[in-house]
Write a structure and sequence with these properties.
This protein has 269 residues and is of the alpha+beta class. The chain is built from eleven helices and seven strands. The chain has a single domain, classed as Glutaredoxin. Strands 1-3-2-4-5 form a five-stranded mixed β-sheet, with helices on both faces. Strands 6-7 form a two-stranded antiparallel sheet. Helix 6 crosses helix 10. The longest helix has 31 residues, at 7-37. It starts with 6 loop residues before the first helix and ends with a helix.
Amino acid sequence: MSKQPHPSRRTENAARRSATERLRAERERAERSARIRRRTVVGGACAAVLALAAGAAFAVGGSSGSGDAAAKGPLVTPANASGADGTVITYGRADAPHTLEIYEDFRCPYCGQLETTDGGTIQQLADAGTYKIEYHLATFLDQGLGGSGSRTALAAAGAALNEGVDKFKQFHDVLYAHQPDEREDGFADVNRLLDLAGQVPGLKTDAFVKAVQDGTYVPWADQVNKAFDRSGVTGTPTVRLDGKKLEVFADGAPVPPDRFTALVGQVTG
């Protein structure tokens, strides 16, 4: 007869195996977090995104015309793009005395929080002529988290920009107001983006719909992301006024609108 292990030893062995499995799982989560840490959001917001990414299983899918096939198409720069290489979106008066640069990723939850908290104030100050806004957009969270929602949303935003800067701004705001959980990669579905575009009056022209479905501006979105990479900015959201970084997060949350206004006043005088 084979010798059976004592019950206490069986319990000890099972506990040892369980501990080993936990250590392996923790190591795998740490490795995923380290990869994301290199390119994810800045400041106190970083820890929360890493915690989400460490334990999440990402559902990446949905119907999309903005995949690799579209990326191999010709580079088409939207009308109304600005900057030397057409990778900047400028909102506000061209003669405004100051420039507010905003670095965002449509999939970044902390960009969504900033827009939800301070977006109205940011626009009001631009509309009042305090500054013009330069949007610098990125798609790096697709690489960090898997999926294509950042790039697909940016390509759709390019189609909106082609219709007009105001159309881009309104679509930009709608996207953040209805931002899906980044683990779901909901913006990878062009049908969802088209549904959201319906909230912007006059945006869903035949040309806009076709551009989104065909992924016309996917190559442009890739160029915009490359420009972001060259900017030296390491995370989103980053906000700079006349080159000076504004600390728009405090204790892991966006500053309130009055505090944002005060930060602007400290630079503009």
